[in-house]
Design brief:
The chain is α/β, with parallel strands linked by helices. The chain is built from 19 helices and 18 strands. Helix 2 packs across helix 5 and helix 9 packs antiparallel against helix 10. The relative contact order is 0.09.
Length: 634
């Protein structure tokens, strides 16, 4: 178990956490939620030992193996497979030592190193690396390509494969679905559900979170609040809690107003002075509950188009690609109300089609016919790269509109959370999420009646993705959307086109139907092209299988009752935490401290003390059970 007790953590001079506590149990799959800049990535650095606490304590098992997905990859001449295997540091150490022992003809060292290699399952490591690469969308011909030959998005996939290959008890993934297509996202979901260790996952993809996580850690007011359930469950619980908090806050403010009025009226009256002082003490004792900020900071819309033609675009026998077509002879009529989602694996032509519509990539054949009033808005994956990094949000807005009053532009930028000094600051130091948000604002201002969006949710946080979903639902023009975010697709488009194998076809089913199609296709592909274990030492995988089965059976007999006990204790601990929250909620009610409620107050305080003792006992039992499970290899 990993615990944080009364933790304080700063980013420069900015406090991210203050007196925050957290418990993470083995095997939990946890979504980490919070606005950009709240401290999610900083928490990951803390858990990886890359930074120190500014206060409080963190307790982590000594032998815990940790792995995280890196965000940057430098170009190198390492092959894709070798780069992925490089993440398994212990394997590379044994491999180098074995090479040295072989050169020296040191048979004693070689014998021990062969045993180490067997323990690591090192002879099957190349096979596992290849399977991970295939799952993430790489082809067999990609295995030998160097890292330098891949684009930035594919290098991120290499980083993900490397993290998944590393032996780990704790796996930290920061936006792993960025740069994945829907097919690879579905594969990653299946892999994570089978992973036996603990997962902490930052993601803007709410459906992916719903399907993978069973708990949510939320950054709220510099605290870490844990919710049981998936992301949708978290939303419901938080909404209910904030609603109660808002009601409590309003009740408390009313009580404060009454007390202050009483103090003002009776402070000078000797007969009432004692009562006035009593209420002043109550004011000092009370802790303000901050108003619940249920509304998102992002409240934007795409400005209404001046005119929406019946037909905004006609594609006539178009062929799309580079030197050779990715698909050809495709025709379609895009109406002013069309809302189309493009499906298909990476590399089949979805993004290239959007670039061709924008004129950024020449057609290889056919024609595009735009209505004279068609106004296209385009959100590209690399759109932030072309923004003038030395310009401010206001200056970029002025470059596309120098006639609208300045305050109206500032109000619009404010709906994307660019306010005050930030609206006038150069964007170079902005985060990836802030730049993506700004690029979206620039497009939204221009009143498009045909919107082309290529993975618009990359680098956005969940609140902004929610705001974008809502804005696209209200948007009145035509939409062509490429996204791996199934929640966004389900809520904004009403028909699908599949682009794959050189063909473009309408898909009549739902996204659930498409998901089944993808999984069936992947199973068939893996059966046909399953890589074989490679390496000269592969024939050395020997051992007494019967003895191994007997040992495994004995281990299972010891492990099962311990796992059952741990599960029961975790459920008991959850229940006790819920009871603790209920008591603390009651104790926060100012009316409880009136004289008429003295008996009830005393009873609650007694229950609170007893519950703290029970919580301590349960946590001790849980730690002992976990240590026992670790001792038998569970």
């Amino acid at each position: 178990m990993i615990t944080l007790q009364n933790v304080t953590l700063y980013q420069g001079a900015t406090p991210l956490l203050e007196s925050a506590s957290l418990a993470i149990y083995p095997g939990q799959k946890i979504g980490v939620i919070g606005r950009n800049g709240a401290g999610k990535s900083t928490l990951f650095k803390l858990l990886m030992g890359e930074m120190q606490l500014d206060g409080g304590d963190m307790v982590m098992p000594e032998k815990l193996q940790r792995a995280q997905m890196m965000q940057e990859t430098e170009a190198s001449n390492r092959s894709a497979v070798d780069y992925v295997i490089d993440g398994h540091v212990r394997f590379r150490e044994v491999e180098r030592a074995l090479d040295e022992a072989t050169l020296k003809d040191d048979h004693d060292a070689m014998m021990h190193l062969y045993a180490d290699m067997e323990e690591l399952d090192g002879y099957g490591l190349t096979n596992r690396a290849e399977q991970l690469l295939m799952g993430l969308g790489f082809s067999v011909s990609d295995f030998s390509k160097t890292v330098a030959e891949f684009s930035g998005g594919w290098r991120i996939r290499l980083n993900l494969a490397q993290a998944l290959l590393q032996p780990s008890d704790l796996l930290l993934l920061d936006e792993p679905t960025n740069h994945l297509d829907l097919e690879a996202t579905l594969w990653l979901r299946s892999w994570l559900l089978k992973y036996p260790g603990t997962v902490l996952l930052i993601s803007h993809d709410r459906q992916f979170l719903d399907e993978v996580v069973g708990h949510v850690i939320s950054f709220e007011n510099k605290k870490l609040i844990t919710y049981r359930g998936n992301y949708s469950s978290y939303e419901m619980q938080k909404a209910e809690r904030l609603s109660q908090q808002q009601a409590m806050y309003e009740k408390q403010q009313l009580r404060k107003s009454e007390i202050e009025g009483f103090v003002r009226r009776f402070r000078a009256q000797a007969t009432k002075a004692r009562q006035a002082q009593s209420r002043l003490k109550e004011l000092q004792r009370m802790v303000d509950i901050e108003p619940a900020h249920i509304d998102s900071p992002f409240q934007f819309r795409f400005r209404e188009a001046v005119k929406i033609p019946d037909v905004v675009l006609t594609c006539e026998d178009v062929s799309v690609g580079y030197t050779t077509p990715l698909f050809k002879n495709f025709s379609i009529t895009i109406n002013g109300s069309s809302r189309i989602g493009l499906l298909g694996p990476t590399g089949q032509g979805k993004s290239t089609f959007l670039k061709s519509v924008m004129g950024q990539q020449p057609l290889l054949g056919g024609k595009l016919h735009f209505h004279e009033h068609t106004r296209v808005g385009y959100c590209a994956q690399q759109q932030t790269d072309v923004l003038d990094q030395d310009a401010s949000p206001m200056l970029l807005m002025r470059r596309i509109d120098d006639k609208t009053p300045e305050q109206e532009l500032r109000n619009f930028l404010g709906s994307f959370a660019f306010k005050g000094e930030q609206a006038d600051a150069p964007i170079r130091p902005f985060s990836g999420g802030e730049k993506s948000r700004l690029a979206l604002a620039l497009v939204a201002w221009q009143r498009p009646n045909l919107m082309l969006m290529d993975e618009p949710t990359n680098h956005l946080d969940l609140e902004m993705v929610h705001a974008l979903t809502r804005a696209l639902q209200e948007y009145g023009g035509a939409l062509i959307l490429v996204s791996h975010d199934r929640h966004l697709l389900n809520n904004t488009v009403d028909q699908f086109l599949i682009i794959r194998g050189g063909k473009v076809e309408f898909f009549e089913g739902s996204l659930d139907d498409y998901e089944k199609l993808v999984l069936e296709s992947r199973s068939a592909k893996e059966r046909d092209a399953a890589p074989k274990v490679r390496g000269a030492a592969a024939d050395m995988q020997t051992g007494d299988r019967k003895e191994q089965r007997q040992q495994s059976a004995q281990a299972r007999e010891q492990i099962k009752p311990l796992k059952d006990k741990i599960k029961k204790l975790e459920q008991q601990l959850d229940k006790q935490h819920q009871q603790q929250t209920q008591i603390e909620t009651q104790l926060a009610d100012p009316a409880l401290y009136d004289d008429v409620n003295k008996a009830k107050l005393a009873k609650l305080v007694q229950q609170q003390g007893e519950l703290k003792r029970l919580l301590g006992d349960t946590e001790d039992q849980l730690m002992q059970a976990m240590e026992a499970l670790e001792a038998v290899g569970g």
